[in-house]
Amino acid sequence: MYKGIIIIFLSACVIMACKKDLGNYKYTVPSEPVLHGIADSTIAATVGDSLVISPLVTLADGNPSRDLTFDWDILVAEEARSDHYTGYPLRIVYNLKPMVRDAKITITDKRNGIKYFYKFKISGGTRFAKGATVLSIDKGVTRLSFIRPDSTVNPDLYHALHNDDLPANPVQLFAKPLAYQENSVEDYWVICKDPSKQSVIIDGSTMLRKRYFGEQFFNPPAAMETQVFNGAQGIPTGIVNGKLYLSITTTAPFAPDFGKFSSMQTGNYYLAPFYSRYNFFFAFDTIRHGFVTFDGGGNFMGSDYQVIGNAFNPADLGPGVLLYMQAIPSVSYAYYRAADGNVYEYTFTVQMANYDLRTILPTRKRVFKGAALLTADSRWQRSAVDIFYFTSNDKIYRYNPVNEDLRPLDANFNSKKVTMLKLSTDGNTLTAGVEGSVVVLDVSVGKNGSITGHVDGIPGAPVDIVSKN
User: Fold this and answer.
1) Strand partners, 247
2) Which backbone phi and psi does 211 adopt, to 5 degrees?
3) 110-115 contacts: CB < 8 A, separation 24 or more?
4) Which of 73, 356, 363, 458 has the fewest Cβ atoms within 10 angstroms?
């Protein structure tokens, strides 16, 4: 009984103490940061461009720059991760695939540790549907830039997007076509001769790296020298380590393995980096010093073609170096620096409409009229009407093999060496590259290569260019 009385008494004391203490505490509600114009909104971003998000932030009883910290998270759902950034404002080069993404700002009040969360979305797009992609070399470093239709330049775009340098010694920017759609661009293959770093494959829409070149093979060669690639018939083929490689096309075009390279085409040969694909392959073997063919399935047939004519032996031109060749199933030309020091022009006709009766008709061998103008790194182009263009230091020459008409183009490059040459598919426009610039020349009928436009801001000397219109 006494125990019960004591408990009641103590409880009453506690209640009275609480009542007496009521109102003795002062509660200060912390001010909440307010974001203007971003919460639950969608912000547009462009792949490869700067993304700056700087919402207006107010704090009733504080200084936002002093009292608040900012964390930004962008969800990359397809890779089950988030990209995290800190600081105010958010300032990045946007490098995610184009799509709408969930994002979040976390604001922390440093005065009390309270966190506030604000959700928004980012709608990523791309500006790479039209324009030109330029491969260049800048003091030994490979650069990839993009020229927009208004001639503004995104220089060194690959490094900006990936914080990484491309492989050294660039040789080709190959526009890998969509399946069976010749002259389209699905991906860019940045082909480099770098024994320590693989060439890369870049998404043609986003300019983001899709994979390294070794992943283009089922079983990549242990040592790989990527040399040249061809997109004829909308299917990539190429020369790697001197061997011909064909794409696998036995699966559906949307299958992961479609377009991959399997094994090299076997045979005792080592190809120069000039070949053509029609319903057969025509190339030059540096072991035989002569022209060789592969059938439509890529089987090496060597020099087992018929030869009609005795102007020269197409199966063996003798020791030397092939400088340029773009063979067609008609009259073709090859330019070859022989062991005697001369550069010879070989004229021949390729007749392979019926591959079982494959025939080469050699018609002429002569010293090339422009031999003295050639340099070790001269660039060549051939038009559909058999007009050749080649570079010689700071000049470009036009050559007609029918009458040996040889003349310099009108373009003046102010003593800058021409490092790149690309002829448009219609043969009317020649695009040249010099240190820091891409220059457009008019070579249509009656024109002699006057400059009609140029774009500056290219880092280094251009090596190759791909245009998308």
Assistant:
1) 261
2) -170, 170
3) 110/67, 110/68, 110/69, 111/30, 111/62, 111/67, 112/30, 114/30
4) 356
Q: Could you write out the three-class secondary structure of 282-319?
A: EEEECCCCEEEEECCCCCEEECCCEECCCCCCCCCCCC
Q: What share of the chain is helix, strand, coil (3-state, %, to 5)?
A: 10, 45, 45
| pLDDT for residue 108 is more than 70 | yes
Q: Which amino acid is residue 201, in one-letter code?
A: I
CA distance 55 to 94: 18
Pseudo-torsion of CA 182, 381, 298, 256, nearest 10°? -40
Rounded CA separation 344/240 (Å) = 27
What kind and span of H or E run contains 18?
helix 2-21
- Residue pair 466/425 in contact (Cβ under 8 Å)? The answer is no
**C-alpha to C-alpha distances, 335 to 33, 117, 258, 269, 392, nearest whole angstrom:** 73, 68, 36, 20, 15
Q: Of 323, 330, 280, which is closest to residue 300 (Cα–Cα)?
A: 280
**167 φ/ψ sector (left φ>0, alpha ψ -120 to 50, else beta):** beta
Q: Report whether 259 contacts 179 (CB < 8 A).
A: yes
SS3 102: strand
Cβ-based burial of 27 (10 A; exposed 0-12, middle 13-18, buried ≥19): exposed
The residues, ordered by sequence, that sit 6+ positions from 388 with a Cβ below 8 Å of its Cβ are 333, 380, 381, 382, 398, 399, 400, 401
Residue owning tokens 């079982």: 356
Tell me the β-bridge partners of 141. 138
The predicted structure's pLDDT at residue 8: 53
Question: What tokens does 77 get?
Answer: 């759902």
Q: What is the mean pLDDT of residues 244-257?
A: 87
CB atoms within 10 A of CB 125: 16
DSSP state of 186: S
For residues 292 and 305, give the distance between their C-alpha atoms in angstroms, rounded to a whole number. Answer: 8
Stated pTM of the model: 0.80
- In the structure, what pLDDT confidence band is assigned to residue 1 with cuts at 50, 70 and 90? very low
The amino acid occupying position 64 is P
The closest alpha carbon to 180, from 250, 108, 233, belongs to: 233
For residues 434 and 413, the answer to whether their CB atoms sit within 8 Å is yes
Respond yes or no on whether the N-terminal peptide bond of residue 89 is cis (omega within 30° of 0).
yes
